[in-house]
Task: structure prediction
Amino acid sequence: MPAPHGPAEQFAAGRRAAAAALAAAGSAERTVPRARDGRPLFPPGFTGSISHTGRLAAAVVSPGAEAVGVDIESAPIPPRVAAFVLREGERRRLLAPAGPYTARDLFAAKEAAFKAMNCIGTLGEFLFWQIGLAQAAGALSATYRGETVPLWIGSQADLSFAVAIRR
Result:
């Protein structure tokens, strides 16, 4: 979607992205209202997630999924934040040069996983940095309280994009 600048524009761009994702997924309904807690309310049978920055909005819809999470990040992640959000083993195995990811990629992955797994914890006790990341046979996954979801990451020089889908 076009570059959203202020909060109202970012919200509207996110809803336009959600409408486009619903259309691509085959939904006749394209409206995505907001729940009291701020989460998007997708039509019955369609589960989705929305993310936006000051210049981009994205939405992912997966018919029949239990939960979906998407996150886009354009700002670099400072080393102190990476050290807090990523466990020592995650930094050692997944960050370059040993692994293929940047701190921004993994931050986006944890945010996407948090959105897909947010009903596992009780409100107030589940914090996204508590999610564990692991890679096996080239596939990245996130785990929290015994629940695991697959993750997909895309990145460019100035953008990281992550999706998690819980079935």
